[in-house]
Amino acid sequence: MAESAETSLFPPPEEFSQQARVKSLAEYEQLYAEAERDPEGFWGRLARQQLHWFEPFQEVLRWNEPYAEWFVGGKTNVSYNCVDQHLATWRRNKAAIIWEGEPGDTRTLTYQQLHDQVCRFANGLKSLGVDSGDVVSIYMPMVPELAIAMLACARIGAVHSVIFGGFSSEAIADRNQDASAKVVITADAGWRRGQQLPLKASVDDALEKSPTVKHCVVLRRCGNEVTMREGRDHWWHDLVEQASEDCPARPQDSEDPLFILYTSGSTGKPKGIQHTTAGYNLFATQTFQWVFDHRDEDVYWCTADCGWITGHSYIVYGPLTAGATTLMYEGAPNWPDEGRFWDIVDKHKVNIFYTAPTAIRAFIKWGDEHVEKRDLSSLRMLGSVGEPINPAAWLWYHDKIGKGGCPIVDTWWQTETGGIMMSPLPGATATKPGSCTRPLPGVMPRIVDEEHNQVAAGEQGMLVITQPWPGMLRGIWGDPERYQKQYWSTVPNCYLAGDNAMCDEDGYYWIFGRLDDVLNVSGHRLSTTEIESALVSHPTVAEAAAVGRPDDLKGEAVAVFVTLSSGDPGEELAGVLRKHVRAQIGAHATPDEIRFSAALPKTRSGKIMRRLLRDIAAGKEEIAQDTSTLEDYSVLAKLRGDEE
Ligand code: PRX
């Protein structure tokens, strides 16, 4: 079935195309050609259309590889673009955010209401001494105040660093420290599968190791008891109570930093990916409109968490700048039952739905009955992000959720790219299940081999981007060398995406996963080295190797091989080590499998042979790798013997 699905072509439904922003392949190709011929004219025109300029820019792009400056000399404000620009229009009373909490409580904020709350909270932050350029960490559940906090920072020029609510206190402390955060915004707790996730308690621990943080703002969400330290901790409601609704957006330079978002790389230390103001704002907005074919009457729902880039670009910044109604949901997809997402679609009459393949695979496993009980007829298009979508999941999504009539956009992009780089345009591009199809206008990809030559159609290679684009990362916070080395030194004059990919005869791109030591677990990036560092920080562990193992649900699962310096191998210690990794990084990094081994397979020069371990973890009978450099064959035999 997979083979036939991969070669099938699904043209956009005619009715959809007729009403779409980009109505045909010819229109897409025209846009693409325009951007290719004159990228600066193209992006300059769109920037003038989409964003409000307090002062116009003088130059569209200043490219001093690997440093790009877009819309040089211009002044704008992302919070203004997301909120204020709609107030003078009929959208003033349009729903900006429709929110549903896990217990079923809902709130709707119009653009006017959002404006008032953002202003009050921005004034609250100012009263704590937060100023332009200060870093504010945000560790919150998926509640409207999370978006409000992001927009309030943007309004006054503070740089936010959103930390996903699943990260541990150690991870929060590392991020606070790396970014020299001055303030942390959190909540007493958030709801997840009927339980309260004690966010403030994690922050309390983190703040013991965060000397730069002077203040902590706490939203009351669950009403659980928390400790509030006098002088340092402030309730959100107290802070906004006296605050004025008047807080004009501060004109920011196009290249002022907007946010930092930490993501895993191939070393043990997460990187603070840095995005700036105008280019990011334009790219998120423009790609949102192209890819989701957004119309004013749509209810749009992206199921990501704002702790990841997808939430930044496609829950908050892109949709709000476009004047969309964006839906936010706080909790789990299987609470109180496995039909929760479809209840939300049914209840709020969602038109555009954007989720991850790992979620789709979970829905398949949970059974069609949860879908069939709900009315999904409001849906008009579907999206996928975060990892390659296997054709079987694609077809299920198409048939069961889209009822055969909704175009699916498989969107390829990264934290670093700021927005979608490759995707079908739903009214223009015929889709092939498993392919993210073609690049968006202004995006110039290429597949190259080890010698940096472009490979022939149908051959795999490294995916690179040959031209700068407005949403590209501007650096790694505090580490320009790593930025240069990681992204710009492997293939001359090209951005290295780190993915293995192929472009077929039709010019359609297929992404096969990472080339580096980065795992993709349920659409989340995890570094094997980070997991290994967490493990070896435990006193019983001498050495550890983490590898990915194919997993039906998560895409990849984390398998680790551990050599002990003390303690007894067995389930008890495995449990202790799992907990330890959780505490060091977060629940999403918990190893799925721990194997103890007296030694790890190494080359004669002492390098752990990870590819070999990957084969062993995957349970492959035949080891396809070259083992001629293996130092001690008995290690391999033992590891394989341990498999039962
Ligand atoms: O390997 C690619 C995979 O996710 C990586 C980026 O992860 P992150 O920065 O966490 O951003 C995820 C959300 C944008 C990529 O290098 N990836 C993302 N989308 C796709 C994908 N792989 C295949 N198909 C996709 N649509």
How many DSSP E strands? Answer: 30
Please name the CATH architecture of the largest domain: 3-Layer(aba) Sandwich
Number of domain modules: 2
Molecular shape: globular
Mean pLDDT: 95
CATH class annotation of the largest domain: Alpha Beta
What level of helicity do the residues show? 25-40%
Query: Which spans have pLDDT < 50 for at least 5 consecutive residues?
Result: none
Q: Structural class, please?
A: alpha/beta
Tell me the strand order in the biggest sheet.
Answer: 12-11-8-6-7-14-15-23
Give the CATH H-level superfamily of the largest domain: ANL, N-terminal domain
**Which compounds are bound in this model?**
adenosine-5'-monophosphate-propyl ester
Beta-strand portion reads 15-25%
Largest sheet: 8 strands, mixed
Query: Number of DSSP helices?
Result: 21
Report how far apart the termini are.
32 Å
Q: What is the radius of gyration computed over CA atoms, rounded to a whole number of angstroms? A: 24 Å
